[in-house]
Amino acid sequence: MSSVPSALPFDDIRDLVARMPGSDAAAVAAVRARDGQLTKPPGSLGRLETLTEWVAAWSGRAQPRIQRPVVCVFAGNHGVTDRGVSAFPREVTRQMVENFAAGGAAINQLCLAFDFGLKVLDLALDHPTPDIVVADAFDEVACAATMAFGMEAVAGGIDLLMIGEMGIGNTTVAAAIYHALYGGRPEDWVGRGTGVDDDGFRRKCDVVGAAVDRIGSARTNPLEVLRRIGGREFAAMAGAIIAARHERIPVIVDGYVAGAAAAVVHAMAPGAIDHVEIAHVSAEGGHAEAVRRMGKAAILDLGMRLGEGSGAALAGAVVKAAVATHAGMATFGQAGVAEKER
Amino acid sequence: MSSVPSALPFDDIRDLVARMPGSDAAAVAAVRARDGQLTKPPGSLGRLETLTEWVAAWSGRAQPRIQRPVVCVFAGNHGVTDRGVSAFPREVTRQMVENFAAGGAAINQLCLAFDFGLKVLDLALDHPTPDIVVADAFDEVACAATMAFGMEAVAGGIDLLMIGEMGIGNTTVAAAIYHALYGGRPEDWVGRGTGVDDDGFRRKCDVVGAAVDRIGSARTNPLEVLRRIGGREFAAMAGAIIAARHERIPVIVDGYVAGAAAAVVHAMAPGAIDHVEIAHVSAEGGHAEAVRRMGKAAILDLGMRLGEGSGAALAGAVVKAAVATHAGMATFGQAGVAEKER
Fold first, then answer.
1. Residues of B in contact with A52 (CB under 8 A)
2. Alpha carbon distance B237, A340 (integer Å)
3. Is B124 helix (H, G, I), strand (E, B) or coil?
4. Considering only CB atoms, which chain A residues are within 8 Å of B338?
5. Minimal Cα–Cα distance from B165 to chain A, Å?
6. Considering only A8-12, A46-50, B110-114, which range has the smallest mean pLDDT?
7. pTM of the entire structure?
């Protein structure tokens, strides 16, 4: 992964997307051949089988293994919280980052339960991005630099990357990204986040509509959507998704907010998130439709809407178990089990 | 748990169902009170929160813990396999039991992945139950004795019981149970099992229709359905479900086949499976509707149709993680995180 130069950074990022490696068909074929010999009816493990093929396809490993699964949580702050779009004060972003460090959050417990690594990357929390109703979140250099920061996060031998986030106000930013990319009305994409009331919901819709209206025709340019109405954690997550493809790391993105970063990359090139699975359908409004727009089927649907990568960790546990099952099962020949008769 | 006496055994089993303990409202209230203090928006963990409450309700523990989760796989053989209803020969049931013992099956790998105990209980595999098209599966004493065997399986300090099965031909038996209990046409409940072709599917439907027609009005009596058109693993699973309630052990039943045992208990008394969660929606035909008839919402939907408790293990991992998350998270006070503003 070359570092992003200071000149024309978005062109460089577009180039990284254009040069993404494809899937490893030979690895998939090897997994399918072995799967057909395992002591079970063909196809009977359903999604576990296709998830194992997916890991093979994007890791390029004919004998896939998950030995270093890591949850990366990207945290950012947003000027738009001044507009009363969240039920929690902005300070909670930093407080939760400290809670992650102390081991007290839900994602800490989930990573402990499944023996996953956890990296928390806080992004200039004392410098919230400007209010996207009236100003762009970044200039191009800053946006590309934040994407590059996200790209660096995937180093260290990670072989399954689970992406989550923390950021008071970021469901509003995610809704703006979905609305910009997918059209419709603001209320098609806005949810109640961490728990706003009816007035708060109305404010969120107004903010989302105003932010997207402000950028006009720029909504057809995914990197401009990210730059103008996104935020730091979104840029970093998009960078991590792009870098993971080049590093041959399968990616599971969490839910509603992390999904908006995946949607930006998908809008750059539909195949650019073929190495990405969506962890779960969030209870946050509009997410099921966003998943459909990305051409994906979420792994889980547990009515969750926390963020932090909590859904990604649960889906990652399914993926890890799927790969371990494929690797560890006996074949019909090894076990002396008769194969299908007819 | 008292042992089942030889006289009037079904009356004794009905009595066990009638005397089932209720849920522990105080334990649920304690879990809800703690949940409201944890560093996350209220409700944001969705199903994880309600699953933790469910464990508290049926374990009676205000501070629920999952420390001894066990998958029990009940294996039986069925005379109806002589009618060509399965793609695999009957010998595969024993071969797979040996595969479980050797650690080569999918369920072995899933139990390893999640650190679950595994008990395999084979039920007179050399003596298949008679062909249910022409004869009852058991007499009452044998059926009740097999249920009692299943009841014994839940001993040993298990605190989360995951129930699965293995038995060539048992999707046909499960379909007959669902058709008897829920009516409709055989094809509403019959699936392709481990992979029969169109002719095999037609044969399964004919067998299911003939078996249910044979018992006539007995289909309104759940224990008679179990005795006349069931099988050994179904009786043992029903026994385990009933015993677990008395032993205050929450139960996760796997999919289509194990679900038919739960359906028998549910038909005896709707509240009799309130301590039971359905692991996943099987890809086997009719299962989604059977889950609905039981008033349940499955935890997972991964297109699986293997049996062995494979779906139950995955759902059990979600439950165990949910309980651990509740137990281990910090409160707002402990973490110094500000609570919701409005």
1. none
2. 26
3. coil
4. 88-89, 91-92, 95
5. 13
6. A8-12
7. 0.96
